[in-house]
Design a protein that fits this description.
By secondary structure, the protein is an alpha+beta fold. The protein is built from ten helices and 13 strands.
């Protein structure tokens, strides 16, 4: 009996333990939530800046060439990004013109431009009584960017004509380097009527009258004067539409011809509208002029020890039309390399004297007038006028 009781006790004892172990091993348990940490989005890979092309900028390449490209005549590309093949030079002396700043070697152009300047000088003298043209920058022998002075004038279809009449004698080479063109401005916003005369109006109208002329650029104040005096030189106002206001053209005007027919690869600007440009557009220009004049007058004197401002990357040969590479190398010319120094002719051109005087600045009284919302040359109204008895 005792053995039976002992056996039952052992069965119950070990059987319960086994059952408990089985429950632990086979029982269903709730899944444990696993916390996940959001990984930051991968940073975009840094794009490497394109390497600066080796070799000199295009302005040094084209500014170092003394002779034209011996190729068929072509103006290639746009006025501010192109070159010139088969260019010819305007003689430095003509019956009705003289070329200025000879050290720059910029009296080159498409034959169409040279023909235009010769005809304009002759017509202006014979028909309008203008003494003759003083011709400033045209293009370099092979066009392209210039070392100084311009972003356009690259395809041989642009020319600067001084608003100073030609003297009645041949100027010496030294005089052509030193004489300054005369500013037509009295202040940043208005012309000097003693300098800008009806003869200038006739000259600019004549310059704009030829069909091959695409645009003529003048200072906005000169454009305004042309609008006001146009009736004195005839009823026709269509020519005014070609005369466009632009910065800094206050001692010369800039003629731009359209691309000659048949010269593939020459890029014209959009044609001007039929409007004379004497309305809202001119008002907008004067708003910009006022802001510019005020800003300039408020700047402190330049610090001679300050670092010059960083300039934009200059154009490279690869930025120009492909054919400009052939233009540059034609005739056996070997372009500059990165190790070459600029030749004497390029250094001479870069060091030449500015063609005209600096832009006039506002004096203190004019600045105060503009800041108060008035106009230059007009006194401000008295804010507290003395009332006089009537009668």
């Amino acid at each position: 009996m005792r053995r039976l009781i002992l056996s039952l006790t052992l069965v119950l004892l070990f059987g319960g333990t086994a059952t408990a172990q089985m429950k632990v091993q086979t029982g269903v348990t709730k899944p444990v939530a696993v916390k996940t940490v959001d990984k930051p989005a991968p940073k975009p890979a840094k794009t490497k800046k394109a390497p600066v092309p080796k070799g000199p900028p295009a302005k040094e390449l084209f500014g170092s060439v003394a002779e034209p490209a011996p190729l068929a005549v072509r103006s290639i590309g746009g006025y501010a990004k192109g070159c010139l093949a088969g260019g010819i030079s305007l003689p430095i002396n003509g019956p009705d013109w003289q070329v200025m700043r000879l050290s720059r070697n910029r009296n080159w152009g498409n034959p169409q431009l040279v023909d235009y300047l010769e005809r304009l000088s002759s017509d202006a003298r014979a028909l309008d009584g203008w003494p003759g043209l003083l011709v400033g920058d045209m293009s370099q022998p092979r066009g392209g960017p210039m070392l100084t002075g311009h972003t356009s004038h690259q395809v041989g279809l642009d020319a600067d004509i001084w608003l100073t009449p030609m003297p009645n004698r041949i100027l010496t080479p030294e005089e052509r380097e030193q004489i300054s063109a005369v500013s037509m401005l009295k202040d940043p916003l208005s012309v000097d009527s003693t300098k800008f005369t009806i003869d200038h109006v006739k000259l600019i109208k004549r310059a704009a009258s030829y069909p091959q002329v695409a645009r003529i650029f003048v200072h906005p104040a000169i454009k305004k004067s042309l609008c006001q005096q146009a009736a004195a030189v005839g009823k026709d106002r269509a020519w005014l539409g070609k005369v466009r206001p632009w910065w800094n053209h206050y001692y010369h005007f800039h003629v731009r011809l359209s691309c000659p027919p048949g010269q593939d690869g020459c890029d014209n600007q959009n044609p001007v509208s039929g409007d004379d440009g004497c309305g809202k557009e001119l008002d907008n220009w004067f708003d910009m002029l006022k802001k510019s004049a005020i800003w300039t007058a408020q700047q402190p004197p330049p610090d001679p020890d300050a670092e010059p401002p960083k300039k934009k990357n200059p154009l490279r040969l690869t930025d120009l039309p492909r054919d400009c590479k052939e233009v540059l190398a034609s005739g056996g010319h070997e372009p500059l390399t990165a190790d070459d120094e600029l030749p004497a002719l390029a250094l001479k051109a870069a060091a030449s004297k500015e063609a005209g005087p600096p832009l006039p600045r506002l004096n203190e009284a004019q600045l105060e007038t503009l800041l108060a919302g008035g106009k230059i040359g007009m006194p401000l109204p008295d804010r507290n006028p003395v009332r006089r008895p009537q009668g």
